[in-house]
Amino acid sequence: LKQFRRKAECDSCRGLLGLLKRSFFLAKMVRMMNILAGAWLIVHSLGEEECEDNSILFLQERLGLHADLKTLEAEVVGATTRAIDGSEESCRDGECEYGDLLCEELLRYGRDKYGSQIALYNAGGIRASLPAGKVTRADVLAVHPFGNNATFFKLKGAALKQMLQDALAEHGDGPGTAGNWLQVAGLRLQASYNSTGWTLRNILVKHPAGDWWALDNDSTYSIASNSYIMDGNGGRKVASDNLELIEANGIGIANLMTDYFKKHSPVSPPALDGRTYHERSSKVFGTAAADIDGSCRDHTCAYGVLLCEEMLRQGQKAGHATEIALYHAGALLASVPQGNVTFESLLQVHRFGYLISFFRLRGTYVRMLLEDMLADHGAPGTGNAASWLQVAGLRFQASWNGSWALGRVQVQIDTEWKDLDTTEMLTREYSVAGSSNVRFSRKVVNKNCVPLEDDGPGALITMSKFFESSSPVQPPPDDQRECLTDNCAWLLESRDLHRANINININIS
């Protein structure tokens, strides 16, 4: 079979290979191993000119497999809540639903068995979508007709980067059609296209601790992939020539996904998170009615407000009941100029590829996080710390007297502002959307939060969609949500309301 696979050049021949592997599976089940031997003799005798689609039917009839295979392939192995997109138009152009599902399961399997960090799968090996409702074995085999097996190997970061650059080069300008485009898990990239071609702007690999680290050319990464890529097909010699092999012929990919549907049905299509986000630099997402300030390390900035408010909406839309959004200023690196908002202008803001994470955190720890942020800030007007937070759904007041003293902190519950709950015994938990840096690099969060979704959408794709749907975008007014004086309007209003409530209670008494 391995020799035959290497000889096969056309899809119909690969279809024969898929049939052989299914025949082998059937043979194991019914204890008729002579089926496989007979199949090999027939295929070995076929000349290249006979490698046509009707050869599959011929092989089925010669072996007497037609009825048995139809019965086997009609077996229901699971279900979907909606159709899962595995179309060539989607999977060869960028991230697709079935590609995410497959790579996440391949990565889980490889991680459990060999400590794999990354999964890579060529889009040409995904040949169909899955229907809504019942999923049969035939449906899974229609997605995976070529009989690929999982393979596991190690590869240097420099070789992995070259693989990604090759995939981008083959993708070209406009909708991608190359089967060598890569579906991925455990890895993220951002890339832009201009007249000189594609440029990789960043590549991130998920660290075992859960955070995302920049790809290191000299580091070795453990990869779960398939036999097609490992053998160097489709121009993937950079993999086959440089890999350190772990296992060459692992579980069949169709069997892996059949097992997945048996265990996890009903399966919903995964939300696309922008893991391989690539666009033309000049693509226009919308317009800015005026400059949107992105200098965010000293105070509230307009871009930080827009981003955090959108994070709040996305967390609520995802079902996390998000109440607070926090994004560290060190990841916001530019302002958005008035006029057209392009992919390039947003890349200038989001150069590092950070994700949005969702978690629950008690009010005591929210306050401690703000106190740590203020300690890093320094004197008023001099803040340049990357740890300064842009916020939404939350407002606070702080005073400077040689050092910062955090005063009142309030959270917006529905439409009402309420004081942050920091009681000692039963502190309320708040649902928070935060940058992945806040989630993993702030010890008070990392040690004490309850994770809801660590790997949410990327901030870049979130804001791309925001400008697409909300343009023209006006810079938001300063609502003093980060009040660094003693006389901000909302604080005075809160004090007046508090005094009024006291007077009412006295009068009632």
Concise account of the structure shown:
The protein is 40% helix and 24% strand. The strands form six sheets. The chain has a five-stranded mixed beta sheet.
Question: What does this protein look like?
Answer:
With 509 residues, the chain is of the alpha+beta class. The chain has 19 helices and 22 strands. The strands form six sheets. The protein has a five-stranded mixed sheet. It is elongated and about 75 Å long. Mean pLDDT is 86; it is low at 1-13 and 25-58.
Chain-wise SSE layout:
Layout: H1 2-7, H2 11-30, H3 34-45, H4 54-63, H5 66-73, E1 76-80, H6 88-91, H7 97-114, E2 118-122, E3 133-136, H8 137-143, E4 150-156, H9 157-171, E5 182-185, E6 187-194, E7 197-206, E8 212-214, E9 220-226, H10 227-230, H11 237-240, E10 244-247, H12 253-264, E11 276-280, E12 284-288, H13 302-317, E13 324-328, E14 339-342, H14 343-349, E15 356-362, H15 363-377, E16 389-392, E17 394-400, E18 404-413, E19 416-419, E20 429-435, H16 436-441, H17 443-448, E21 450-453, H18 459-470, E22 482-483, H19 489-508
Parallel strand pairs: 2-9, 6-11, 13-20, 17-22
Antiparallel strand pairs: 1-3, 2-5, 4-9, 4-10, 6-7, 7-8, 12-14, 13-16, 15-20, 15-21, 17-18, 18-19
Helix pairs in contact: 2-3, 2-4, 13-18
